[in-house]
């Protein structure tokens, strides 16, 4: 038998047995592979243990640094490497439900018919999303998304002109929204821009699920908390934004805006908290403005639309849009949000892709003057 066949046979034999898992595996190994070397026995033992008590076939994939995301549809396993989705086998010795339970147990979370959707963060920093029936109609589905432990450099996203502009916007204290599609590199680009902040500044990072690879000498991180089955109340991102304003931030970072927190953030950006950052799912910079507009209207339906547009344009200075091109993530647009001079005007942007050095100085000065008026 090859190793994979032996592992499978050991797991099938031991799965329903009671007793010490290591002793049971060793006994089956002596029976099934009496001629195996000590190295082979250790390797098969580790793989069988992972399948029976850990993440089964996912164990090696989670440890593989070349994989960005692991997807499980019922029992089928897919992986995303450098933007390419490929099949990576199936769960054979355990069910997807058991794997989900093993992932969530150490962090005190659970998913079942009464709570069929879960978003969580593993101790390694990976983000987990699981959905089970009856919501997931074709069986349980699982996504494990890995994040880089260190921030990428800004010049990995753009050319020297784009990098110079991004650095000047950060150092001038402009409010920046990074937009893009799912897995386009928004979080990585945001971390790269935050790396340009002066070490003396106090940065407060707020996220639904902590994933930003951000390091700074004066960094405070907070993570939202959902309500629990044991009666623990939720601590939403909106509450964290209000709390952060009382903690004297020099820079406020909201990992992603997608709910009522947009109202607290917009008000914060328009009341002196310059140099703040956030991200937004959108197909382009104008779409990002329109999405933020709709989020504000949903959170505060009593606000008139012209007032919302004025507030957003005066709160957000620049939208940086990033897109994925194969295995690369690149900045495709840097655009200034224009303040409407007519109540009937839709949001508009001024593209800064070909801006010169002199234009950069004029832009930064204008944005700073605009926030003072």
UniProtKB/TrEMBL annotation:
| CDD domains from the UniProt entry | VirB11-like_ATPase
Pfam families with a match to the protein in the record = T2SSE
| GO MF, any single term | ATP hydrolysis activity
Q: Which domain of life is it from?
A: Bacteria
- InterPro entries per UniProt: P-loop_NTPase (IPR027417), T2SS/T4SS_dom (IPR001482), T4SS_GSP_E_ATPase (IPR050921)
Q: Which residues form the Bacterial type II secretion system protein E domain?
A: 55-325
Q: Which family does it belong to?
A: Belongs to the GSP E family.
The record ties this protein, via PANTHER family, to: TWITCHING MOTILITY PROTEIN PILT, TYPE IV PILUS RETRACTATION ATPASE PILT
Q: What is this protein called?
A: Putative type II secretion system protein E
The record lists the organism as Ilumatobacter coccineus (strain NBRC 103263 / KCTC 29153 / YM16-304)
